[in-house]
Amino acid sequence: MDTNMLYYKIYKGDVKSYDYIKWAIKMLENDCSSASINVLSALEEPLNIFEVEDYFNRASSEIDLRKPSCEECNQSYKNHLLKTILKDENNAIDLAYEVYKVVREKTNTENFSRWFELSEMIDDFLYGDNVENLTRTYLTSVIVQVAENQIKESRK
Q1: In this structure, what DSSP letter does residue 44 have?
Q2: Which residue has better confidence, 75 or 36?
């Protein structure tokens, strides 16, 4: 787990002890090491969240980790979801809801409008009358197309 993804979970209040451990392992894989990262990566169940967070805070200080902004973390998580949609089209509908939750927190109305529109189409397909006779295949193709376009835009 990269730093922005970990902080996304921290900001959302959804971080678990094992998330810190995954982060420490990822740091070691990226050749970033310190005494506390080594200890953190080796912790095993049962985990004490206070001990784990203490090692994370120590590790952050030891490597002079810059705390990313909430906006940076949201963007990283959104990009992760978009890439996951492209890799796993079978879960595109569920992942589209997640993207919608992330973009609704931001002020970019173009992204919000598009994902809101998609979430409405999904709701109609799953729970509504499906007046437009939407199919799972059609919805998936639209979601994948929007994800591809947004990934291309983010690279500019």
Answers
A1: -
A2: 36
Cis status of the peptide bond prior to 46, with omega within 30 of 0: yes
Instruction: Name 155's Cβ contacts closer than 8 Å, sequence gap at least 6.
Output: none
> Cβ of 119: how many Cβ atoms within 10 Å?
18
pTM beyond 0.85: the answer is no
Parse the chain into domains and list their residue ranges.
3-62, 70-155
Long-range contacts of 16-24 (CB under 8 A, 24+ apart): 16/49, 17/43, 17/47, 17/48, 17/49, 17/52, 18/47, 20/52, 20/53, 20/55, 20/56, 21/47, 21/52, 23/56, 24/55, 24/56, 24/59
Closest residue by Cα to residue 115 from 133, 138, 95, 134: 95
Q: Which residue has the tokens 């409405």?
A: 120
